[in-house]
Design brief:
2 copies of one chain form a homodimer.
Chain A lengths: L14 E5 L4 H12 L3 E8 L6 H12 L4 E6 L22 H4 L11 H16 L3 E3 L4 H4 L7 H14 L1 H4 L12 E3 L7 H10 L24 H13 L9
Helix pairs in contact in A: 1-8, 8-9
Chain lengths: ~240, ~240
């Protein structure tokens, strides 16, 4: 029986779009959105990431958590390049703690969260939904500029100007209903996120984090993402369910 | 010999990404960016629009104007729906003048310009470019919220927070170099844009505007886009090179 740490806001019958990558953070974000009473529509972007094992993980998480719908949108970011996650640049391994924070890594995908949240907003408009959920947080920041709260605040204002819903000029949309981008994990570290996931009944064994998995999807144990994940399980004091190569 | 109406700013050797749809506006925007001295990289989004004839038009325009590069990025917006341009909803025909402005039409694609400019920024980051060009203007606005200047201003601020370049924290990027989203057509009507295109030597016969073309690409003459285009040529006093069905 999960223990709910926060009161559940009244959002009955409100629909939300949740960006679901297949990693721990987005899975826990989805569970929180559901706990808060949102009818959740998961959106996964197949951007031809080298760790495409996360796409299968996203589908498994969406099933386990019984999303109202799950869309996979194809966007071939290999065409623009610029990241170790979509290109041939090697994924760095076993970087020391000091390098995991404060620098933008080669795994940065140019403007990724901006692009993904923009797509989520477009999808939400078709559902008459004004709430988006994204699992950004301080630990995953690790130097990614588009994981900062000030980016989210700015984008919310931009969405209100960019969309039919924000301007309220369209048929079927309440006038000027503003967007909300929910970032329920933003102040949590990985151990806290993992603990929250367990409380909410998320099967974290279904999630995938590794940037450079073996062909069968087993985690490499040495990339930034594996290091942060393993440390999170250790600090949370729970067994790491990750399948390592 | 074209007559240049504006002085050419000094942008020698600066690279820019130009969103190139294959329509008149983006073609003229590209020509203006080149006149201003930018080394231009065209980006076309194949969003599975029903008027995919514009993809071939974009390629032809990019060749004619000798872009430094031309990328076509695949993004299947049919998956999220919500627009007559990507779905089965009929494209409206022969709408009266009063309806062409001031309402958001069914051809609105949710958050399209936000998504496309976000992708352009991602591409620009890989080129170390900080300038984007997009051919939005008051006539094409026709009720599209994401064609308004206040949207562009807001997005510029968001880009500065979202990207490696804007924050200046990445290797090889000057600290804090801000983004500029150029909208050189924003104050021009369609006739003025067409006149500008002729001055700059753009072969407008290569462009495609129709939302609902015949299988061979010939224009329908009756959709909003055809109506605005035909009126533009008439008002500009130049022969309409459009191939109609």
């Amino acid at each position: 029986m999960p223990i709910y740490l926060r009161p559940m806001p009244a959002h009955a019958e409100k629909h939300a779009v949740v960006l679901l990558s297949g990693g721990i953070d987005s899975a826990v974000t989805l569970a929180i959105a559901q706990q808060w009473g949102f009818v959740c529509h998961a959106l996964t972007i197949d951007y031809r990431q080298r760790h495409h094992a996360e796409l299968a993980a996203a589908a498994a998480v969406a099933r386990q958590l019984r999303c109202a719908s799950h869309k996979v949108l194809a966007l071939d970011l290999r065409a623009i390049g610029g990241s170790a996650l979509t290109g041939e640049t090697p994924v760095p391994k076993d970087r020391p703690e000091a390098q995991l924070a404060g620098h933008i890594p080669v795994t940065y995908v140019p403007a990724r969260n901006l692009v993904f949240l923009s797509l989520a907003a477009g999808f939400a408009e078709t559902l008459d939904a004004a709430d988006l959920f994204v699992g950004i947080n301080a630990v995953d920041y690790s130097g990614y500029p588009d994981c900062r709260p000030e980016f989210i605040t700015s984008l919310t204002g931009t969405l209100n100007l960019a969309t039919r819903q924000g301007t309220g000029a369209g048929p079927g949309s309440p006038a000027g209903r503003p967007w909300t981008i929910h970032t329920p994990l933003v102040a949590l570290n990985k151990a806290q996120i993992i603990a929250r996931g367990y409380e909410l009944g998320v099967n974290l064994a279904l999630t995938h984090s590794c940037y450079d998995p073996a062909p069968g999807g087993a985690a490499c144990r040495h990339c930034d993402s594996c290091l942060i994940r393993a440390r999170g399980f250790a600090q949370a004091g729970v067994a790491d369910p990750t399948r390592y190569a």
